[in-house]
Amino acid sequence: MFDIKAPIVLFDVDGTITESRRRIEKHVITALRELSLYSEIGFLSGSNLEFIKEQLWPLFADTRTNNFHILPCNGTEYWITNPDVPGDFIEISSTSMFNEVGYETYQNIVKLMIIMQAEIAKCEHYDIPYTGHHIQNRSSMFNWCPIGRNANHSERRQFITMDKMYRIRNKFLMEFKRSMFSMDIDNIEIKLAGDTSFDIFPKGWDKTYALRHFPKEEWEVYFVGDRCYPNGNDYEIYKALEPEGRAFSTGSPEETVEIIDTHLLRLIPTE
User: Fold this and answer.
1) What DSSP character marks residue 263?
2) Which of 39, 35, 34, 44 is nearest to 10 (CA)?
3) What values do phi and psi take at 54, rounded to 5?
């Protein structure tokens, strides 16, 4: 007799179920609600809880579904929806990058971000806007955004165009890694995050961290994300689940809906 494991599908947010930094659209909500009849649903993002709530609020505000798991900051935070208070969340666990890596490494990482932000700003080839809030401390990780997290949609599009032309983030990702090597910092990862930023966190705190909340003896975990290539922030969890046929790479929310309809609803038992 075989044990029956509970299915859960973990979705990246930006670029997977929403356009980058945009609110979820109705057709995606409809697809997720259909899937939620047969599986638990998790939202696994590098962003913090408040930003996930802002993007997915129409989904959380509806009282018909409460089997959502919210996994901000690569799953180093874990929240569930409050069944008694629609739109409210209950914290299950959280952790701290400072406690993990210590004062000296923490300080050196902050200094590196500041130095490299200045180097980007000094480069005359990069015609990009600088809008403020370039470094966001998310407790378990840093998000470093060269144009600043205050950028509007037009400013983000301008940076994305320049980044494709000059490979700005790829250049500074490699420079950041070289600087960490020269400083004997070997316990920190840096990844491309979304279209405009980097995520910086302790090694092992990539999105596979979320799997700690769902032991394989009890859960059948699936994943859908858009940054499933090396240096992308979905890469590790995609590679962990892909050999078992439970990881899917998407290019847009529309493609994610197709993955739900043509793959997930067929793989997950619906009876």
Assistant:
1) I
2) 44
3) -65, -40
Q: What is the pLDDT of residues 167-219, one digit of tens each?
A: 999 999 999 999 999 999 999 999 999 899 999 999 999 999 999 999 999 99
The residue type of 200 is I
Secondary structure of residue 118 in the 3-state scheme: helix
- In the chain, residues under CATH classification 3.30.1240.20 are 97-202
Catalytically active residues are 12, 14
CA atoms of 131 and 123, how far apart (whole Å): 16
Closest CA to 260 of 33, 22, 6, 80: 33
Residues of each domain in the chain carrying CATH 3.40.50.1000: 6-95+206-267
Q: Say which CATH architecture domain 6-95+206-267 belongs to.
A: 3-Layer(aba) Sandwich (3.40)
- With beta carbons less than 8 A apart as the criterion, state whether 48 and 73 touch: yes
Instruction: In whole angstroms, give the CA distance from residue 162 to residue 18.
Output: 23
Q: Is 97-202 a domain of CATH 3.30.1240.20?
A: yes
Q: How far apart are CA 28 and CA 18, in angstroms?
A: 8
DSSP 172-186: HHHHHHHHHHHTT--
The answer to whether the predicted template modeling score (pTM) of the entire model surpasses 0.70 is yes
pLDDT digit string (tens) for 116-140?
A: 999 999 988 888 999 999 999 999 9
